[in-house]
C-alpha cells in the first residue's frame, strides 16, 4: 500500500511539473471545472484567473474562494481567492491569489487586473502577475513577473468568443534565465441556446508547457437555482461533471474531474455578490 501511494504521489507531482502551464495558468472556479475548464467566455468572479476581459461590465462587487484536491493527494492541492469590483460603467478591477503544492514544491501567484470595454461588443483585460516557486533546497527558489491578456466579445446575441494569452513575451524567472514560464494561447466559443442550456468549446496551444488541445462542456440550468454540468478535455483525456446552487447573492459550485491514469479530483468554490 505504501508503495502504491508513493507511485501515485510521484505521478501526480511529475504530471504537475511536466505540465507547468496547468499551474501557471491554472483555472479557478468549480463552475467552469464542471465543464472541463471551458472558462474563457464565463463572466463571473473567477474570470480574474480564467480570462481578465470577462470581468468587464460585471455589475456587482464579488469575491470567491476555490479549492481542488488533485488526484485526492494532499500534496497536489490547489487553492485560489478572487475579488473583482466595477469602478465605472465599462471597467472593472480584479485581484487574485493562488497556491499549489506542498512543503517540497510550492507555486504561488498574485495577480491584479483591469478590464475595459473597447467597443460595444469588444472587451479587453490585462493582468499583471507576480510568481513565486519554492522547491527543495537543492533546486532553490525562483521569482518572476509577467502579464496576461484577454479579449471577450459577443458579436451576435447569445454567441460569445474569448481569447487569452499568458506570458506573450516569453519571460523567464529572475534567478534562472533557463527556467522559462510557459507561453499559453487559448480560444473559446460558447452559445446560449436558451436560459437553460449553454454549450462551450475551447482549444489552446502552449510553448514551454502544456494545455489541452480541446475541451467541451455543457451547462443546464433548472429553475434558475440549480445547475448541472458535464465536460471532456483531450490529451490527456479527462472527464468532468458538476453542479451548482444559487441563493440570494451566494453561489455554491461542486465539480469532479476524472483523469484516465491518476483518477479523481474533487473541486469546490463559493462566491458572493455584494
Can you tag this structure with a few keywords?
274 residues, mainly beta, Porin, 4 helices, 14 strands, globular, disordered N terminus
Q: Could you characterize the architecture of this molecule?
A:
The structure is a single chain. The protein has 274 residues and is mostly beta strands. Helices cover 11% and strands 56% of the residues. The chain contains four helices and 14 strands. It has helices at 2-18, 21-24, 30-33, 47-50, and strands spanning 62-69, 77-88, 91-102, 105-119, 122-135, 142-156, 159-166, 183-192, 197-207, 214-222, 226-234, 238-247, 250-259, 263-273.
Brief overview:
With 274 residues, the chain is mainly β. 11% of the residues lie in helices and 56% in strands.
Write the SSE topology.
Layout: H1 2-18, H2 21-24, H3 30-33, H4 47-50, E1 62-69, E2 77-88, E3 91-102, E4 105-119, E5 122-135, E6 142-156, E7 159-166, E8 183-192, E9 197-207, E10 214-222, E11 226-234, E12 238-247, E13 250-259, E14 263-273
Antiparallel strand pairs: 1-2, 1-14, 2-3, 3-4, 4-5, 5-6, 6-7, 7-8, 8-9, 9-10, 10-11, 11-12, 12-13, 13-14
Total number of domains: 1
Q: Strand order of the main beta sheet, please?
A: 1-2-3-4-5-6-7-8-9-10-11-12-13-14
Mean pLDDT: 88
Q: For this structure, what is the CATH homologous superfamily?
A: Outer membrane protein transport protein (OMPP1/FadL/TodX)
Rg is 18 Å
Helix content: 10-25%
**Stretches with pLDDT under 50, minimum 5 residues:** 1-24
Distance separating the two termini: 48 Å
Largest sheet, if any? 14 strands, antiparallel, barrel
Secondary structural class? mainly beta
* Morphology: globular
Oligomer: single chain
- H/E series, N to C? HHHHEEEEEEEEEEEEEE
Question: In total, how many beta strands?
Answer: 14
Amino acid at each position: 500500500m505504501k508503495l502504491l501511494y508513493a507511485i501515485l504521489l510521484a505521478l501526480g507531482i511529475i504530471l504537475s511539473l511536466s505540465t507547468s502551464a496547468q499551474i501557471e495558468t491554472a483555472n479557478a472556479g468549480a463552475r467552469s471545472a464542471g465543464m472541463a475548464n471551458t472558462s474563457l467566455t464565463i463572466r463571473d468572479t473567477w474570470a480574474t484567473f480564467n480570462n481578465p476581459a470577462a470581468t468587464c461590465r460585471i455589475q456587482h462587487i464579488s469575491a470567491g474562494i476555490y479549492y481542488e484536491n488533485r488526484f485526492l493527494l494532499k500534496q497536489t492541492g490547489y487553492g485560489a481567492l478572487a475579488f473583482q469590483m466595477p469602478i465605472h460603467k465599462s471597467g472593472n478591477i480584479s485581484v487574485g491569489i493562488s497556491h499549489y503544492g506542498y512543503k517540497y514544491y510550492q507555486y504561488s501567484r498574485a495577480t491584479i487586473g483591469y478590464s475595459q470595454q473597447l467597443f460595444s461588443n469588444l472587451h479587453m483585460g490585462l493582468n499583471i502577475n507576480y510568481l513565486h516557486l519554492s522547491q527543495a533546497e537543492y533546486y532553490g527558489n525562483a521569482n518572476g513577473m509577467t502579464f496576461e491578456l484577454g479579449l471577450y466579445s459577443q458579436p451576435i446575441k447569445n454567441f460569445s468568443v474569448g481569447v487569452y494569452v499568458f506570458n506573450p513575451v516569453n519571460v523567464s524567472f529572475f534567478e534562472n534565465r533557463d527556467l522559462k514560464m510557459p507561453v499559453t494561447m487559448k480560444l473559446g466559443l460558447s452559445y446560449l441556446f436558451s436560459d437553460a442550456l449553454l454549450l462551450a468549446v475551447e482549444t489552446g496551444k502552449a510553448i514551454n508547457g502544456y494545455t489541452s488541445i480541446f475541451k467541451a462542456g455543457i451547462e443546464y440550468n433548472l429553475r434558475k437555482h440549480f445547475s448541472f454540468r458535464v465536460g471532456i478535455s483531450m490529451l490527456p483525456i479527462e472527464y468532468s461533471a458538476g453542479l451548482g446552487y444559487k441563493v440570494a447573492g451566494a453561489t455554491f459550485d461542486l465539480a469532479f474531474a476524472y483523469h484516465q491514469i491518476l483518477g479523481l479530483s474533487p473541486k469546490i468554490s463559493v462566491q458572493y455578490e455584494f
